[in-house]
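thread: overnight batch results

M.L. [08:02]
morning all. the overnight job finished for the chain we discussed friday. pasting input first so we're all looking at the same thing
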Amino acid sequence: MGEARLTRQEVAALLERGEAAAEAQDWALAAACYEEFLAEHPDSRYSPVLWFDAALYHKFLRNWDKAYELGKQAAARAGDGEGDPVYWNLGIAATMLRDWPTAREAWSKFGIALGPGSGEIQDDFGVACVRLDPDGAAEVVWVHRICPTRGRVLSVPFTDRRFGEIVVHDGAPNGERRVGEDAFPVFDELALWRSSDTATWRAQVTAPGEADMDALSEAFAARELAMEPADSLKFHCKCCSEGSIATNRTVLTGARDVLLAAPDEVTARSVLDAWAAGGAGRAWHAIHAKAEVVTPETP
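M.L. [08:03]
and the structure it wrote out:
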């Protein structure tokens, strides 16, 4: 004897409960209601939308296994329409689970051209910004995008995050930063995909001129590391942060605190020593591990 099936009235009540839960942003309840319906009606006329919605709600919950499982069901019913968000969300979930064949297929069906290969995607999607921990410290950093949904952190974060982390970001920009005539999207972080062993140090440097500060930044960049002046920190309210902000480059000279991304103190000292020896009046002292600085927004 088979299991009892939902009556028409029960189906209507179940879907209404799921819709109400979604409106209240109770993603777990909404997904559970839709999954209960889909277990009995995987291919009704409503099902393609509900497969997508259930997968999306699990993305919101950062439940990547379920987002992947339901996303594959949604993609199987989505057809071949380029730009369909079904494929974007599946691409994110597959990336989180390191399923590169599925991720590559999803991005391709979405309409994104990838370089050749079958393993981890390591392409060049340009520079953008990502808002780390958007519901917490909400620190905006520069990243180099290596796939449609991942970026490697190029900035030295002021919070407890690290240079060189690889983060997964969402697809819709939530703000922009303007540098001259160029505009760069700000994406919200979804998850930390790979941590970084590059520690953050704080030191005081003396730079007689703007060229000396530029030389310090270049010295760290030459080692594939980074430097960030501590006074480059800027605070913005949520509304302004999620809008369009012009970032003006201001290089201050004299004695300044700087944040340094380096794997260890010996490396940081060696770069500072070489920099100081390369110009008259350059100096540094008082290096130490950076204490956490919590900020709602930068740059």
